[in-house]
């Protein structure tokens, strides 16, 4: 969906939006030029390592953003909901990996997708799930492809490397007519890395864990052709992807303050922000109040365990630069509180009522999830040239 171009420049000030400009605040602003730069950065790295990309679309949940990943076309993607799978399939994406542990009652939707020509792959880590996939295959005549999830760091689900359960799962799948397509691992623990060396080590451990389980499957007679790894931190830190066939990452298209906090990107790489308006002041408390609360930015506090806590987000001018040490430190449903970072000697900026500012997200996935659309800047300008829809639901 393309809107009439709207200019966020002003004649006199850079901290206001001109009358008749963009939509009511708060709204989600996307810098297309930064998105394209972020995409090319990862694609170039994976070309160097000789591994394909299966981007995770759960961050953007946008067909328009996904098309940037494939030069306007389509390609293999990862989704986190069957709603995403259905929506992307309707736009020509037919190679889809549903990378959330499978609830057996969803298998009817998986079968329906295959009958519509979509190669929808599922993720399992138990014999019980394998039995459900095998039963659905037998009952439908549709050979359902499944990945065996590998747990490399105790972060969430998965079979630990060396656990014979992986072979047992493959046996149940194949005996029932389903397909043990390969293994999948997500190094969620990499988000807790605090140095480049730790990120590199997490990436190598992720790779080695996946390859080991794939080799165990092959040693038991299963082809397991696909070895799928990936998170945004490890995708950017990996130095060797031998044995890996594809990398999944999603946050990299936008980045956020969590990624900046662990050294995966710079704050200047963040491509998404929430535009809010100053609606009040509490000078005796050092507060600036905006119309953007947690309904606009989310309650994610992902940097609270990092060396530098960024609250609910850093605050920037519309024309780019950050206000020194100005942080969104509190949020109610529709109110955001901006204060100077504790211990800083910076002065609270003079932001009159009506001033519009950008809040940089702590967690891009969570912030984007609060909104229905992206207001997209035309590259090289401060003009909103298009509005891109995003998906919701399961």
From TrEMBL:
EC number(s) stated in the UniProt entry for this protein: 5.1.1.1
Domain D-serine dehydratase-like, first and last residues per copy: 271-378
GO terms of molecular function: alanine racemase activity
Keywords per UniProt: Isomerase, Lyase
Region (Disordered) residue spans: 1-22
Keyword Isomerase tagged: yes
One Pfam match: Ala_racemase_N
SUPFAM superfamilies: PLP-binding barrel (SSF51419)
Enzyme category, top tier: isomerase
Keyword Isomerase: yes
Protein family according to the UniProt entry: Belongs to the DSD1 family.
Name of the molecule in the record: Alanine racemase
């Amino acid at each position: 969906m393309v809107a009439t171009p709207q200019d966020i420049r002003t004649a006199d000030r850079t901290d206001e939006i001109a009358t008749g400009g963009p939509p009511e605040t708060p709204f989600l602003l996307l810098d297309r030029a930064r998105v394209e730069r972020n995409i090319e950065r990862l694609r170039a790295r994976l070309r160097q390592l000789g591994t394909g990309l299966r981007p995770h679309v759960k961050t953007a949940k946008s067909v328009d953003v996904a098309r940037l990943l494939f030069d306007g076309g389509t390609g293999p993607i990862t989704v986190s909901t069957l709603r995403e799978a259905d929506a992307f399939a309707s736009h020509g994406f037919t190679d889809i990996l549903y990378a959330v542990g499978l609830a057996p009652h969803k298998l009817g939707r998986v079968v329906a997708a295959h009958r519509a020509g979509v190669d929808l792959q599922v993720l399992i880590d138990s014999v019980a799930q394998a039995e459900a996939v095998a039963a659905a295959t037998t009952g439908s005549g549709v050979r359902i492809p499944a990945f065996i999830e590998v747990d490399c760091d105790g972060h969430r689900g998965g079979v630990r490397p060396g656990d014979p359960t992986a072979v047992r799962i493959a046996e149940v799948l194949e005996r029932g007519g389903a397909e043990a397509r390969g293994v999948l691992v997500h190094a969620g623990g990499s988000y807790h890395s605090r140095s480049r060396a730790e990120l590199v080590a997490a990436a190598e451990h992720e790779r080695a864990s996946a390859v080991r389980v794939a080799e165990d499957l092959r040693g038991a007679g299963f082809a397991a052709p696909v070895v799928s790894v990936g998170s945004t931190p490890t995708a950017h830190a990996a130095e060797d992807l031998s044995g890996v066939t594809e990398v999944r990452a999603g946050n990299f298209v936008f980045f956020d303050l969590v990624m900046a906090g662990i050294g995966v990107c710079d704050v200047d790489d963040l491509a998404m922000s929430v535009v809010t308006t100053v609606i009040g002041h509490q000078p005796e408390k050092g507060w600036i109040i905006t119309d953007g609360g947690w309904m606009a930015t989310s309650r994610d506090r992902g940097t609270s365990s990092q060396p530098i806590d960024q609250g609910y987000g850093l605050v920037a001018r519309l024309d780019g630069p950050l206000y020194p040490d100005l942080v969104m430190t509190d949020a109610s449903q529709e109110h955001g509180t901006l204060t100077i970072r504790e211990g800083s000697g910076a002065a609270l900026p003079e932001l009159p009522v009506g001033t519009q500012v950008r809040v940089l997200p702590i967690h891009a996935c969570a912030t984007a999830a609060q909104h229905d659309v992206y207001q997209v800047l035309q590259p090289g300008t401060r003009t909103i040239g298009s509005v891109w829809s995003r998906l919701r639901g399961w």
